[in-house]
Design goal:
- The chain is an alpha/beta fold.
- The chain has a single domain (about 1-195), classed as Rossmann fold (3-Layer(aba) Sandwich).
- Helix content is about 40%, strand content about 20%.
- The radius of gyration is 17 Å and the shape is globular.
Amino acid sequence: MIIIGIAGGTGSGKTTVVREIVASLPEGEVAVLPLDSYYKDSSHVPVEERQSINFDHPNAFDWDLLSEHISMLRRGEAIEQPVYSFLTCTRQPETIHIEPRKVVIIEGILALSDKQLCDLMDLRIFVDADPDDRLIRVIQRDVIERGRTAEAVMERYEKVLKPMHLEFIEPAKRIADLIVPQGGHNRKAIEILKMYIEKIVGR
């Protein structure tokens, strides 16, 4: 089993890189654990206060549970991955059953921000992209998928995303084994990455 962490800023192309890795391996060989699934449950927080939660800060995540789940998968045990609702900022009663696989990918903006979790990884990847490109993708995604105005997205970018990126996400480059510039558009880097993974899992 190989445990891979894939981090990078919002809109950097992490999902594209993950999709390419999954597509390159036989069906059923990869388990993907989105970091977003491991946000702390906020059901105890008054509803009116939940909107002020900083989802781009490491304190928003349940690192202990995620590390425990990675250790369980490594031991050959199945896990019940949490399901998180951004509408209510709460963990849902249902879970997703995940069986151990040859490749386990942890993907999220802060996937390389917890030392205990990083120590469990065999390969740490940082997906990099120009800040302007990331902002454009964030605006497109939030306006289309989340119904926000471009002005609201840019205000959130300046007040939350940008400072959190500089403080917590960007430093992860220093512990990454591989940095993928130009995000999901870097075909050569993704091909090299896929070959490495295939070699490790014995294909």
